[in-house]
Amino acid sequence: MIDPIKATSAALVKARQTLTPLAGFPTELPADLDMAYAVQAQSIADWPDEVVGWKVGGVPPHLQDEYKAERMAGPIFKQMVKNCADGETVDMGSYPGGFVAVEGEYIVFLKDVANLPDRDVTLDDMAKVVDRIHIGVEIASSPMKLVNALGPLSIVSDFGNNAGMIVGPKVETPMSVDFSDYVVSVDFDGKQIGSKPAGVGEAGPFGAVIFLINHLRARGIDIPDGTAVSTGAISGVHDTEIGVQAKVDFGGLGAMNINLVPFTV
């Protein structure tokens, strides 16, 4: 009998490794988020790279009751991370014929969390677990053009729809920064696409950190010292295409320029 988790994982991993566009989900969608995360775990085990961080994304409000979740997560692999100084330009790969989006996000690097109490973490724990914060960008890309349209089960199964992360300049004295003071804007080819500040409290970057730590601990997944958390799109998920030149500006904290280029085998 064919194992549906292994079959789905194999199809998704093959599409990424061979750069094969997918018109839809390659198998039957997982039955629930637990099964989708099981697919993700199998794909992580089979992917020839090291997980160095996690992206956190939001479950659309109209689906949160159905999935009993406000956020979802996916792995970020070492070979897909690049650093970018303020004002510099970096080339980032995306899947030809698939989904491509650019998302301005704060990147939180964690300290060792092994000594945290055996309970869910809260905002009060953030000073104990946050090492440093950078401005950054997530490149959301998948061989599936409809990965987001198909919903959370599709997104979670396919590495959280992640294809890379840019780590920009460090935010000084991060624990005292009110991130809602900084408007994050995304431009494509010189035209502004989105502009918005981050939320506050659990609606902002630290809320994503809380979710991610609790999520990984509940699933028995190690959180090494230095793990990065890409904390979620601020101005929105901005679909685009390969060849576009993007700029993500964090309003006084720095800006990064991105050339979206195709992955090659």
- What is the CATH topology assignment? Fumarylacetoacetate hydrolase, domain 2
Count of discrete alpha- or pi-helical segments spanning 4 or more residues: 6
N→C terminal distance: 32 Å
Show unreliable segments: none
Overall SS class: alpha+beta
- In the CATH hierarchy, the architecture is Alpha-Beta Complex
CATH level-4 homologous superfamily: Fumarylacetoacetase-like, C-terminal domain
**What's the mean pLDDT score?**
96
**Tally of structural domains:** 1
Which labels suit this protein?
265 residues, alpha+beta, Fumarylacetoacetate hydrolase, domain 2, 13 strands, 22% helix
Verbal overview:
- With 265 residues, the chain is of the alpha+beta class.
- It has one domain (4-262): Fumarylacetoacetate hydrolase, domain 2.
- It contains six helices and 13 strands.
- The strands form two sheets. Strands 1, 2, 3, 5, 6, 7, 10 and 11 form an eight-stranded mixed beta sheet that branches. The chain has a five-stranded mixed beta sheet with strand order 4-13-12-8-9, with no helix packed on it.
- A hairpin with a 5-residue loop joins strand 12 (245-249) and strand 13 (255-262).
- Helix 1 (4-18) packs across helix 2 (33-46).
Topology:
Elements: H1 4-18, H2 33-46, E1 51-58, H3 64-67, E2 71-77, E3 81-83, E4 89-94, E5 99-110, H4 126-129, E6 130-142, H5 152-157, E7 164-171, E8 183-188, E9 191-197, H6 205-218, E10 228-230, E11 238-239, E12 245-249, E13 255-262
Parallel strand pairs: 1-10, 3-7, 4-13
Antiparallel strand pairs: 1-2, 5-6, 5-10, 5-11, 6-7, 8-9, 8-12, 12-13
Helix pairs in contact: 1-2
